[in-house]
Automatic annotation (TrEMBL):
Protein name: E3 ubiquitin-protein ligase TRAF7
Pathway of action: Protein modification; protein ubiquitination
Subcellular location per the Swiss-Prot or TrEMBL entry: Cytoplasmic vesicle; Nucleus
Main enzyme class: transferase
Keywords: Apoptosis, Cytoplasm, Cytoplasmic vesicle, Metal-binding, Nucleus, Phosphoprotein, Repeat, Transcription, Transcription regulation, Transferase, Ubl conjugation, Ubl conjugation pathway, WD repeat, Zinc, Zinc-finger
A UniProt-annotated Pfam family: zf-RING_UBOX
EC number, UniProt record: 2.3.2.27
Primary gene name: TRAF7
Species name: Chrysemys picta bellii (Western painted turtle)
InterPro entries per UniProt: WD40/YVTN_repeat-like_dom_sf, WD40_PAC1, WD40_repeat_CS, WD40_repeat_dom_sf, WD40_rpt, Znf-RING_euk, Znf_RING, Znf_RING/FYVE/PHD
Record family assignment: Belongs to the WD repeat TRAF7 family.
Entry keyword annotation includes Ubl conjugation: yes
Amino acid sequence: MQSPVSSPLPNRKQQSQAVLELNWRKSPHLRKAIWQKLDSSETTSTTAEIIETAEPGSCLGGRFTKLSVKDSFLATALQGRAPPISTPRRSDSAISVRSLHSESNMSLRSTFSLHEEEEEPEPLVFAEQPSVKLCCQLCCSVFKDPVITTCGHTFCRRCALTSEKCPVDNAKLTVVVNNIAVAEQIGELFIHCKYGCRPAASPKPAAFEVDPHGCPFTIKLSARKDHESSCDYRPVRCPNNPSCPPLLKMNLEAHLKECEHIKCPHSKYGCTFIGNQDTYETHLEMCKFEGLKEFLQQTDDRFHEMQVAMAQKDQEIAFLRSMLGKLSEKIDQLEKNLELKFDVLDENQSKLSEDLMEFRRDASMLNDELSHINARLNMGILGSYDPQQIFKCKGTFVGHQGPVWCLCVYSIGDLLFSGSSDKTIKVWDTCTTYKCQKTLEGHDGIVLALCIQGNKLYSGSADCTIIVWDIQTLQKVNTIRAHDNPVCTLVSSHNMLFSGSLKAIKVWDIVGTELKLKKELTGLNHWVRALVASQNYLYSGSYQTIKIWDIRNLECVHVLQTSGGSVYSIAVTNHHIVCGTYENLIHVWDIESKEQVRTLTGHVGTVYALAVISTPDQTKVFSASYDRSLRVWSMDNMICTQTLLRHQGSVTALAVSRGRLFSGAVDSTVKVWTC
């Protein structure tokens, strides 16, 4: 694995001075041995002899005893975790005028020139007055980093970024590109060296003038840094002692010859010599540390190499730790994902178990139905079996975002209207495209009832209103506040609209797009959820009661008592009155005698809707239930001839047209059935 890139290490001279002094204080045995050898006449003693004089218990002994002599000294510092020691070479130790001159130039350049660039304005005095064309119209000075803006003019970059509009054409300023041609022209202008300038007496800030005692040279602006970095008039400091007075570069060499503060290059090891240039050279020949210079230099090199290696290892360790942290995060994420997948798996397993139980229940219902049919066949009362009368699901309309509660067919245009809990009415083409033509929006509550009279569609909702829609344009034309409670059912007859709600039926005269309240039928004991108009009579269902009203005078002419709770649905055939109840039952009365002739059983949930398809040969009644099934009943012998199971929720609404049956359910779909 490739190790991370090492970070820059500290300056070796800075390391040596701080660390060698630390190790010198920590190792008294080493210090004593070196001083003894230095004081003796045998100045050529080897480093092995010096190290051997150290006591075994000192920091020189221990785990590094098998190393070479130089490695032992190296290991001594490593045991104490000391940074590498840097020993000055011969070229560094002799503080000659030339070396001090060079070193002082570098240090002062990095210290003072950068400081001036950051904090003080750069003196800029031109040898000749520059052309006005080379001046920025915003700051009225020579361009600094000229750029071209979107308006086509040239300004300083800082001016363009800090100003909002161009002073020439008042356009918004946006930098496009650097103006290299103008920058090159400005770079060719001649200026005075900054060390030949001084602040002007003018009250204008940052103004400079030529200093007759400063640098006399004029240079190109583009070559300014090259000249000023080596200018003889550049101020410098004495490298020996910062308390020496400031000097010019041209005077540094003469000062160094006379300076009385030159230190021995081995002062960091304990040498206390301070003198001038003449005494420095004499002292260097007699300095006790000079004999160890080569050894200390080699040791410094080894320490430096080992520190580089240690730094690389530290970064490798940091890199590995970061990788380990990322792997830990990935493992945690994988564990969370695994837990989520287990949760989804458990949920799917529970759903499959529920579906399996539902399937078994449906299969049990089918078996019961088959047993019932077989019993009827054996009794000889079923009649002949006609395979052409088997109803099959031919398609499904999908689009609602909630349960479908009502259906209504406009036979002229083969349109089907469906009302849903999503507060919308969808218009379906049942002849050609079989797609939703439009979604009607206007109600603030569940759409519970639909009814058609002429070319108008009437919709009743849980928001207690009735909305009138034009079927030709599919636009809302009127809204009536009909009841104080949800409008549960609607039916029209004799140019009147009947609406059912809690303990009330309202009769409305249809006048164009208006509804005029004609009468309110009372005496009802519960919610009116079912209304059917047939010939001259209106049939209404409430709690265990069916009332028959004469539409001509709006009077109640007959009351049928039922069982099984509230009446949820009513259907009228040529010979029978049929109602579905809350407690799974379907009651049948003779339409002439008003006597109950049969109670049909088979559903295991509330019978929400009833529909009739009549032919000259036979009459069939379709029932929709909470148990998700539809049943087909033959009114000739009052038996169930077919059970339709395709919905995934309670079947709540039915409508018939051209021999087709439409069913709406809580699963938000509408299915089409034909035989």
